[in-house]
TrEMBL record:
UniProt catalytic activity: a uridine in RNA = a pseudouridine in RNA
InterPro entries on file: PsdUridine_synth_cat_dom_sf (IPR020103), PsdUridine_synth_RluA-like_CS (IPR006224), PsdUridine_synth_RsuA/RluA (IPR006145), RluA_PseudoU_synthase (IPR050188)
Record-annotated Pseudouridine synthase RsuA/RluA-like domain positions: 89-236
Membership in a protein family: Belongs to the pseudouridine synthase RluA family.
PANTHER family assigned to the protein according to its UniProt record, in alphabetical order: MITOCHONDRIAL RNA PSEUDOURIDINE SYNTHASE, RIBOSOMAL LARGE SUBUNIT PSEUDOURIDINE SYNTHASE D
GO terms assigned for molecular function: isomerase activity
Signal peptide coordinates: none
Keywords: Isomerase
Name of this chain's protein: RNA pseudouridylate synthase
Gene3D superfamilies xref list: Pseudouridine synthase
Natural source organism: Companilactobacillus huachuanensis
């Protein structure tokens, strides 16, 4: 059984019932039902009606005494992981380019999730989101299946933000910032690829130019939706293909894809706290960007 004990801190003079607080914490309705009928929400050690007002500094105990939606485990992997952040419930890992986020078959043991399975030893990882095999950067992973639906709701409500850095070829002019809102679907000629198509799924990307010269630009990218290959397809369709993209860039390739998931922003579950986690560009990628853009090595800072 997963148990979470929270000291409630009232925000902005709010006055919430237990039911309203569980809704605010994005706990699924079905789970709220289980909590109520099993009396598994305790306030200061006692069960109360769901219409009870929660007071500042009340200690809330949530006993997740019911099956989660998923309970998938992985074979242990073999590679070390780079942990950027870790607490009792989540782990954020900096994935290397060329590493799959998750295995396609239960018999595989060479993905990031396999490596995290080995790292956790007595625990198991549960995938919150994924990034392409060729993309490097931050991946948020839950240590319990009970947080996955909560993070899924954050993704849907756009309170979980993923920010990327990309070096692109400028095969067409680009504005200093903008929004790409073009639907994405399967490429009928290549099962590996996606394409902008009228009957595709809605896909929206925000971009901002950080540095540029006549041939290349370093972009900051925000995903507002999470379609497969979304950034790669959107940028290539607008004639700004990501450098070293073997699927969507017609230019010569020399090295890994220049797409890095550098920043995650999300709400800490069961709190009003915002968590911001960032990772530095890999040194080889950073050095090449500086050389290509002919920038001094004082690090182009996307947050300035």
């Amino acid at each position: 059984m997963y148990q979470k004990i929270i000291t409630y801190h009232r925000e902005n003079h709010e006055s919430l019932t237990i039911r309203e607080l569980l809704k605010k914490w994005l706990i699924p309705k079905k789970w709220q039902h289980f909590f109520r009928i099993q009396e598994d929400v305790l306030i200061n050690g006692q069960y109360h009606s769901f219409n009870t007002i929660v007071h500042d500094l009340d200690v809330i105990t949530l006993n997740f005494n019911f099956p989660p939606r998923t309970e998938q485990h992985y074979l242990p992997g073999h590679d070390p992981i780079e942990v950027v952040y870790e607490d009792e419930d989540i782990i954020v890992v900096n994935k290397a380019a060329g590493k799959k986020t998750h295995p396609n078959l239960a018999t595989e043991d060479d993905s990031l999730m396999n490596d995290v399975e080995a790292y956790l030893k007595d625990g198991h990882p549960y995938m919150v989101h994924r990034i392409d095999m060729e993309t490097s950067g931050l991946v948020l992973i839950s240590k319990t299946p009970y947080l996955v639906p909560i993070f899924n709701r954050q993704l849907s409500s756009k309170t979980l933000h993923r920010e990327y850095l990309a070096l692109v070829n400028l095969d067409a002019p680009i504005e200093d910032s903008g929004t790409i809102n073009q639907p994405i679907g399967q490429d009928p000629t290549d099962v590996r690829k996606r394409m902008v198509t009228a009957d595709g799924l809605n896909a929206t990307t925000n971009y901002q130019v950080i540095e540029r010269n006549s041939e290349f630009a370093l972009l900051k990218l925000n995903l507002l939706t999470g379609r497969t290959h979304q950034l790669r397809v959107h940028l290539a369709y607008n004639h700004w293909p990501i450098v070293n993209d073997v699927l969507y860039n017609p230019h010569e390739k020399a090295g890994n894809l220049f797409l890095f998931a550098h920043k995650l922003t999300f709400s800490q579950p069961f709190t009003d706290k915002r968590k911001i986690i960032q990772a530095k560009l890999p040194e080889n990628m950073y050095n090449l960007i500086c050389a290509i853009l002919k920038q001094p090595k004082s690090s182009p800072n996307p947050d300035n």
